[in-house]
Amino acid sequence: MFSLLPILCLAGLGLVLLIVDSLQRRNDHAGYWVTIFGLAACILASFLTLDSHSEVSGNMIIIGGYSHFFGLLFLISALLTVVLSKEYLQRAQRPVGGFCLLVIFATIGMMLIASAGNLIMVFLGIELMSISLYVLAGFFRDRVKSNESSLKYFLLGAFATGFLLYGIALIYGASGTTSIALILEKCPALSASKIFWSGIALLFVGLAFKVAAVPFHMWVPDVYEGAPTPVSGFMSTGAKAAAFSAIVMIFARPFVQGDSIKLVISITAAASMILGNIVAVSQTNIKRMLAYSSIAHAGYMLAGVAAANQLGRTGVLFYLIVYTFMNVGAFGVISLLESEEERFLSFGDYSGLAKTRPFLAALMAVFMFSLSGIPPFAGFLGKYYVFAAAVNAHLTWLAIIGVLTSVVGVYYYLRLVVVMYFDDREPIATNPSSIVSVAALGCAAVVVIYLGIFPSWVIAFIDRLF
Predict the structure, then answer these.
(1) pLDDT per position as a tens digit, 163-183
(2) In the chain, what are the helix, strand and coil shares in percent, each to the nearest 5?
């Protein structure tokens, strides 16, 4: 039971916040601070239980280093999202307490996915996470784009769930179990079963939708653009990391990847890198640019999954840490600057930002440099590890595609930096930002820089998880 402390703390925080929000409906400050301190307590609980291992509810939930690693990642993503959302929601006159509650329940779903020892638990975690995100995407009910965002995400998400469930049903029919450990154990014996491999393929389709990989990416640009900006950041990091926790657990193993499955994952990775980077070049809306960028980064991480070796698994997990900080940071800067008139959503709005808000411009530049993979920022090492894993697995062609498309990505990331520092147009007035929000972004930037210079202890820790 001690091993379940982080999830139990988070569930308890959700119930407490529900009561506080109902009693203090006119005072959002109470719910906000309860959420901040509650998430901090959950992070502390995750550290305390980091080395504990146990199996709960008949192996439905497996608690250990792997699940606690992702739990920490989800909790940090949630904490940064909540901190950066307060001013954004107050400017839009929206309830902070209800927003925080949905973030908490989405995080519980993410933690269940990473802790799953059974495909049924993977499904339950995905549904809890997804339903919360559907509501968060449409949190601004009086905005047409927000409603469109929520409806599109819901309809396509329900469609993807059908693939996921049908895949689980086929796997159960062929193997006689939904236990992930037993399924992995029976893989060699089921190598000739078409039903089993059809189920594995459908399971991958369902999870590929959640990580926004091509060709299951159609929802991403519109949903990211229409959703509240902090929600877009949360979806692009926490939800993506949750789906990758299941993908790495199941697919990043050589005995699961038959030649056909390995080829499918490799082609999906290549298509995601190519389409995401090329289409991002033509975007004028920064949220849409980051949406297509998210598709490309899913492709980079899938290259590590396709490698199905130790370096590939380690590289994907390291990449997820780095991606969480730099993408939440990028969306966080946008949310602090964005106004009710939807200013600071296009590249031109950032003209001369370095003169009016030099610290925010510097933070955004750090996140853009890291996303583009320029050393010494951590994004460079994330790409290095997954591409090196692909080369070691004799997927050199995939690594070459990754490097070439990364070069394309440098253009649209640095384009924003050039506008901020070298554009001579008159700067637009910006909203004031609280010290807490700017400090949170500063911490994210420090992590991105630090992990780019001193990654060895994180890599050593991740290696212990497998």
Answers:
(1) 999 999 999 998 888 888 888
(2) 80, 0, 20
pTM for the model stands at 0.93
- Give residue-wise pLDDT tens across range 18-36: 888 777 766 667 788 888 9
Cα angle, residue 232 at apex, residues 344 and 34 outer, rounded to 5°: 105
Query: Is residue 76 within 8 Å of residue 443, measured between CB atoms?
Result: no
Number of structural domains in the chain:
1
Q: Is residue 155 part of a domain?
A: no
Given a cut of 70, whether residue 1 has pLDDT beyond it is no
* 164 domain residue, yes or no: no
Of the candidates 251, 290, 288, 268, the residue with the CA atom closest to the CA atom of residue 214: 268
Domain range for 276: 257-466
> Could you give the CA distance from residue 185 to residue 203 in angstroms, rounded to a whole number?
17
Residue 245 near residue 117, CB atoms below 8 Å: no
* Nearest residue to 412 via CA among 337, 352, 330: 330
Tokens of 253: 């193993």
CA dist., res. 72 & res. 234, Å (int)? 14
**Any residues with CB less than 8 A from the CB of 348 and at least 6 apart, and which?**
284, 419, 425
Residue 395 tokens read as 């997927």
DSSP state string for 289-311 = HHHHHHHHHHHHHHHHHHH-SHH
